[in-house]
Amino acid sequence: MTVNRQLDSKQRFWAIPHRAVQIEDRFWQPRIAGNRRHSLPYQYQQLQSSGVLDNFKRVLGQADGAYAGPFWMDSDAYKWLEAASYSLATHPDPELEQWVDDTIALIAAAQERDGYLDTYFQWVEPDKKFTNLAMCHELYCAGHLFQAAVAHFEATGRRTLLNVACRLADHIDAIFGPGKLEAADGHEEIETALVDLYRVTGTERYLNLAIFFIGQRGKADSRFRWELGHLDEIAGKPGKPGLVNPQYYGSDEQYDGRYAQDHQPVAEQSEVVGHAVRAMYLYSAMADIVAETGDPRLLAALERLWQNVTTRRMYITGGIGPSNRNEGFTRDYDLPNDTSYAETCAAVGMIMWQHRMLQLTGEGRFADIMERVLYNGFLSGVALDSRKFFYDNPMQSAGDRHRQGWFECACCPPNIARLLASLGKYLYSRCADGVAVHLYVQGSARVSLDQGDPLILHQTTDYPWGDRIQLRLELDRPAEFALRLRIPGWCRRHGLRVNEEAADPAVENGYAVLRRRWEPGDRVELSLEMPVERVAAHPAVWQTMGRVALQRGPLVYCLEEADHPVPVARIVLSKDARFTVRFDPELLGGIALIEGEGWVPELQGWENTLYRPAGAEESYRKIPIKAVPYYAWDNREPGSMAVWISQDLIKQG
């Protein structure tokens, strides 16, 4: 049975759906348009050419040959469908809608009579279904199908994909649960997707199944351990389970479940471990369950995990997971620069988790992290032309790291597409006594107030370049409510005016709260001081000792060799270096440049020398430097890049 305790409704937020939000700025709107016009069509072509859709045709007898790609290929189609559905909800497109309909028809036709659907197992190992949960991704693929189905239903009102999802969910529910197959998913995803499915259908079994899956993690008799003891019996022969499963989980005798967050019951966890994407999807699901049940133990665990990742295991860009060995976490303060992994999918998951925590608590610190990841660790994952993508996002490069059009494991491109297409839902929320604005993006939002009165909130801003946000309230009649405006954690000084008069409201949980009787046409202006700041990392992060990063507003900056005559790792800042900001509309799609002066060591005397006594005739020369937003790097000619810049006691002269 589920619990229905209420969280503190005075603090909770409820996200305003993306279809009720219009984005009309010069920063995000072109990216959303590029996603719609370039990424989604390109990705649909890749679904065809990479064999993703052919796998469904093989199941139907319409194609033959070997199964294409890894076990989880189906999920690429599902994430694309989710992204396309979000796009259709705000931008009708007959051609895109036809592609969606054709893909759904293919998927529906491939579903088995009992509801099962996973083309790898249907084509390659039909007698090994649900035997290698640790690595074969059946439940993960199902989760992405559920989320695509919910997005499609909400966009179109049609149940063509939702019926497929419900049949598969019913099939899974018949197999898993107390007294049945008691196991978790090796790659979390189905848990949060089941909650989404429950919210749309009202079928409580789906919520209960999500709670069941969450409760399976960290058990002494973990199913993943059992699979290690039965490697000859489980699925995944093309992937060689005898090698792959032990690589990530150890052995039956020495089982290590950290890779899939299976080392402790989730309510007892305090440390982010293992595969970063898996962790983010797990924490998102835990937050969803807290929203439905009010479970205080899960909420307390989420708070501990949040403190651990944001104070010890997160890059300045909001990227997470430094290691490519496990695509995830290592230990506290281990944040290397040139080998940083920081997978784009993990950034997507981090945004999802922060957004859920924000709705649960109404605390701006979660919106601060959400914004940091969105503008930096996530946005770097897609090129300015919307046609190439980063899988991992390093903090430093020698010029040999570049975006690609597609990947054998193509999880990141459609993940980027689904977040960009649904970006509107991250901007605003309803709260118990009014409306909250989390992100400053020009456009508008349609809100229904408590008494049913409609409100259209018009936002005008050039954020993140400009420091002013103007809000105009379109109301049918006067209404009394609170308007909450987030004061970002990076902002040291802000100003507020209501109808041209200065205002100084209280700041509660990171939000300036304007409580008043609002008249139609009322205007609010918020100014956020945006100086260039040097940011230092904790001294325990030895990889950044003696270095600083540059940040302005929500944006982290970097140096690229394209703007400098030397590899940027040689550049040194003086302690008293000063910076100016200049907007260049022609560079990298239009950016605010940070300009200043740096120093580079002279190389005279180093000929045929690798080491010499420190301080021996060292000299430096001054050069102009330009810093560009981190998200925009690698969109020009190849060259070195660095986020962290050496800082010395050199005085400018």
Automatic annotation (TrEMBL):
What are the Non-reducing end beta-L-arabinofuranosidase-like GH127 C-terminal domain coordinates in residue numbering? Answer: 532-645
Q: InterPro entries per the record?
A: 6-hairpin_glycosidase_sf, Beta-AFase-like, Beta-AFase-like_GH127_C, Beta-AFase-like_GH127_cat, Beta-AFase-like_GH127_middle
Q: Name one GO biological process term.
A: carbohydrate metabolic process
Which is a Pfam family this sequence falls into? Glyco_hydro127C
The Non-reducing end beta-L-arabinofuranosidase-like GH127 catalytic domain, residue ranges: 20-424
Where does the Non-reducing end beta-L-arabinofuranosidase-like GH127 middle domain start and stop, copy by copy? 435-530
The record's section on PANTHER family has: DUF1680 DOMAIN PROTEIN (AFU_ORTHOLOGUE AFUA_1G08910)
Q: What is this protein called?
A: Glycoside hydrolase family 127 protein
Please give the organism: Hydrogenispora ethanolica
